[in-house]
Amino acid sequence: MEQWLGRFVEKYAGDLYFPDVQITDIVEVMILTFLIYQVMVWIKNTKAWMLMKGIIVLAVFILLAAIFKMHTILYIAKNAATVMATAAIVVFQPELRRALEKLGEKKFLTSVVPFEANREKSRFSEETRESIIEAAYAMGKVKTGALIVVEQAIRLTEYESTGIKMDCLMSSQVLINIFEHNTPLHDGAIIVRGDRIVSATCYLPLTDNMGISKELGTRHRAAVGMSEVSDALIVVVSEETGAVSVAQGGQIFRNISEEELRQKLIEIQDKKTEYNRIAAWWKGRRKDERKTNA
Ligand SMILES: Nc1ncnc2c1ncn2[C@@H]1O[C@H](COP(=O)(O)OP(=O)(O)OP(=O)(O)O)[C@@H](O)[C@H]1O
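== Diadenylate cyclase ==
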């Protein structure tokens, strides 16, 4: 039996090539798996999915042309490839930019970049959080429409400049006043940076996501659109139903309760607290270093 097994292994496994696997190879495979997974998720969550489908159809078409030796089609496909790659970069520029921005958002980068320490100020307080909640539900009760963009790590300067600049400390009364019907500032969105309202009547990009309920109009589409191009959290109050919804990461969470909204806001506050912790840790480390060097 042993002999037979030995001959069997020799016969079938003798020609097999077993590479010498190092620890770096395993790490490399893990990194590649992670990157490919991230790219696939990105493709699925953006317009790139439509492009991917188009590429698959084109690839099948070209494959058929190759099988049936249709030389003219193959010639055109070969020459158009570079142009199409350039066109794809131009068409998907916002998505690509967003993907790169997302990379920059990762905590492992911010943790080693201490020069962003002044961003500490942009973290909002509990009072701001409660003011947003209080105002949102108060406006919902009387069916006053509102669109509140809470900025996070990505600066929304380009959207801020579409509105009227403000520098106003946040309070529920101010919010209610801004969105009051027939007042000069009620139209469009406000942008909240830290504990201040920095701009009102801002114009936000509309999403072209076909999956969003047809019941939702432009206010909600603007909220989703904004959440697709930034990491902001957007609170929407419907003028029609009074319902409070939140858009984040291209998704909309409709008709949420006061507690759910609080949780969402706490989540982004926590991110900030985490950043502060990292910054404090970094500062402490540098102080220690200076002490030991002295
Ligand atoms: N691109 C945009 N950026 C910012 N605000 C917008 C944008 N588009 C629409 N709005 C705001 O939404 C209002 C129109 O809301 P509309 O009724 O179309 O949306 P809706 O999603 O059905 O909301 P509602 O439930 O409040 O009616 C506008 O008056 C404006 O204040």
